TrEMBL record:
Keyword set includes Isomerase: no
Official protein name in the record: Thioredoxin domain-containing protein
GO molecular function: antioxidant activity; oxidoreductase activity
Record PROSITE patterns: THIOREDOXIN_2
SUPFAM superfamilies: Thioredoxin-like
Signal peptide range in chain numbering: 1-28
Keywords tagged on the record: Signal
Domain Thioredoxin residue range list: 30-168
Keyword presence, Signal: yes
Length: 169
């Protein structure tokens, strides 16, 4: 029996289609629209991001690696979004696939990235998406529901469009 196709509109320009339960899916992720029970996540600066900190705030979680040129451009756009949204209920979190904290700090400084980052990308990735692409952007609304899973580099307009998630749903 062939598993059913699931289609999710992940942005105005992207649609994600996959076979539910298809072979090759490394793990089960949160279905879109479902609330996420946010885990306590260690941040690169030594602090942590837990359920209390994510509540009532929309989160743009970007999975990336230091060696990805597409990620560099994408993250600069996300940095601009983070700066634009200061003081508003939307935050950016970088989930870095690389595990060398010193290299990640150096990269963030060189690129001017000030949004929080975690090295616990594998843990978050298992919760949010089976997709194995970088960059991968996942959006949680203010109720911690997964709303968008966007594979690949996004245009500046699309990144800035994520600001809409700061509004109550």
């Amino acid at each position: 029996m062939v598993p059913p196709l699931q289609t999710i509109a992940v942005s105005r320009r992207h649609t994600l289609v996959w076979l539910a339960g298809a072979a090759g899916s490394a793990h089960a992720a949160l279905p879109p629209g479902e609330p996420l029970l946010w885990p306590e996540v260690a941040l690169l600066d030594g602090s942590s991001l837990g359920p209390a900190q994510v509540r009532d705030v929309a989160w743009v979680v970007v999975f990336f690696s230091l060696s990805c040129g597409y990620c560099h451009r994408h993250n600069r756009r996300l940095q601009a979004l983070a700066q634009r949204m200061r003081g508003q209920p939307l935050r950016v979190l970088g989930a870095v696939h690389d595990q060398d904290a010193s290299a990640v700090r150096t990269h963030a400084q060189q690129e001017g990235l000030t949004f929080p980052m975690t090295l616990e990308s594998s843990r978050l990735h298992r919760l949010l998406s089976p997709r194995r692409i970088t960059p991968l952007t996942c959006v949680l609304d203010r109720g911690t529901r997964l709303r968008e899973v966007i594979p690949g580099e996004m245009s500046e307009d699309d990144v800035m469009g994520l600001a809409r998630w700061a509004q109550p749903v």
